[in-house]
Amino acid sequence: MSKPSITSSLSQPPMPLIDQLDYLGNPLSSARQVLTQHPDLQRIDGTFEDLVHTFSFLVSYNGSTATFNSYRREVERLLQWCWLVRGCGLGELKRQDLETYIHFCQSPPKAWIGSKQVARFKNCLGERTANPDWRPFVNQAIKADPQSRTAFSLSQKSLQALFAVLSTYFNYLLQEDYLRINPVALIRQKSKFLQRHAYQEPVRRLSNLQWDFILETVEQLARERPTEHERSLFVMRLLFGMYLRISELVADERSTPVMGDFHTDADGNWWLRVVGKGNKARLVTVSDDMLAALRRYREHLNLPRLPYVGEQTPLVQRLKGRGPVTSTRQIRYLVQSCFDQAFERMRSQGLEDEAQELRVATVHWLRHTGISEDVKFRPKEHVKEDAGHASMATTDRYIDTELRERHASARHKKLKPEL
User: Fold this and answer.
1) pTM for the predicted model, two decimal places
2) H-type alpha helices, 198-327
3) Distance, CA of 166 to CA of 331 (rounded, Å)
4) Which terminal CB of the chain, N or C, has fewer other CB atoms within 10 Å?
């Protein structure tokens, strides 16, 4: 069979292949549906079998939407490169091909890079249709500087995820007797891709000035359009003040966060029960300010000022319809909109340099910022428990006292020492 043109494959963005978990059928029907939508792929040997085994692999992670999404991202990118660029099926891949693929991911073609996260598929007249704005890679810096599209590169964290997920994927295909080798395992010198740092990577966070502008912006929006933005204000305060992950705000297979998760102990102290990574439940302390924010949001919803035992009101409700928010993408859009509007306010007040960083800030920066601020004043053991860190070493990353002292001692070094 003929292979696709590599030139055309690199100059055009690929279409998404794998939908959300809720829209997948059995592996056979899902594979047939993909090839019906993309008949050109049938020209490549093995695409149907590749898809059947891929869908079987992915649906085994149906217990966690976050895990499914991360595995889907890595596997889908590989399939698109394998079929559209390399022009072969999974069974033909060798170690050298995987190394070529990793280099491709480190510097993908412009057409494969987007400026924001968007859904792969949309509902259109009752049918699921591919979103033409979706791209396999995302570089948020493009919003701030369109020329940065040429400077895209995967972070070390993303490269580590690539190796981990694809190794698991190929091991699964080996166990299913579909492949004979795991090409990822044959890459002996992973060190040329994965760096080992002799220093602690700095935590990406917002400055106090940036957070002040963000909070003021959302408070203003809540006054002007409370129906939409009282929820925005509550979410932003949860993410910063209790350093929650966005996955801990939405309803999924693990849990549905509800107002009844707020509760008091025998001493009258308020806590929030959260189900986090690894399906582990933890209790997060509720500060007086956060309790006041909760009262404000509940009054906006015409609820009693404080939650009651067993209350099932969703913690974060949909704006349209009833029920809880079920997609982390909705939370990302909400936060990004707040960042964008704060950026415009800062820039209009002549704070161009400080504002630029908001163009690349992510939701997780709010969690990092909240932890970084708290660890300055609270016992780090308490912060560790509230954050749900598995070890104290993770919490220690947020303590930058040593870096401050180190930089202060070097600030007045002379390039021309005095005699």
Assistant:
1) 0.64
2) 208-224, 226-241, 288-300
3) 28
4) C
